[in-house]
């Protein structure tokens, strides 16, 4: 699906499945996370932050490093967190895990963390 969406565009993309050694439940239905850039990039980690007892959310937080000409490497993290109303504690733990992900792969340029 992603390949079809990006067909004919000069973009580079990575899907969480490129890094994960397993297919999360419902990934065939919901797809998962992807990073799409105009710069070549390499994936560095897919962080599985699924909440125990909630099997219908297959998205991973995806980290890629893009080489920006003359500027250096930029870490981009496409974050996904629990969205259900009662998941405040899970979101807090996930935010801490995303901060740790940033620390593990940090570059000289500021990290961009974005999400839906």
Largest sheet: 4 strands, mixed
Strand order of the largest sheet: 3-4-5-6
Mean pLDDT: 83
What are the low-pLDDT stretches, counting only 5+ consecutive residues below 50?
none
Task: Describe what this molecule looks like in 3D.
The protein has 116 residues and is of the alpha+beta class. It has one domain (2-115). Helices cover 23% and strands 30% of the residues. The chain has helices spanning 2-6, 27-30, 88-105; strands spanning 12-15, 34-37, 41-47, 61-68, 72-79, 112-115. The strands form two sheets. The chain has a four-stranded mixed beta sheet with strand order 3-4-5-6, covered by helices on one side. It has a two-stranded antiparallel sheet with strand order 1-2. Helix 3 links the parallel strand 5 and strand 6 (112-115). 23% of the residues are buried. The model has no long low-confidence stretch (mean pLDDT 83).
Task: Write the topology of this structure.
Layout: H1 2-6, E1 12-15, H2 27-30, E2 34-37, E3 41-47, E4 61-68, E5 72-79, H3 88-105, E6 112-115
Parallel strand pairs: 5-6
Antiparallel strand pairs: 1-2, 3-4, 4-5
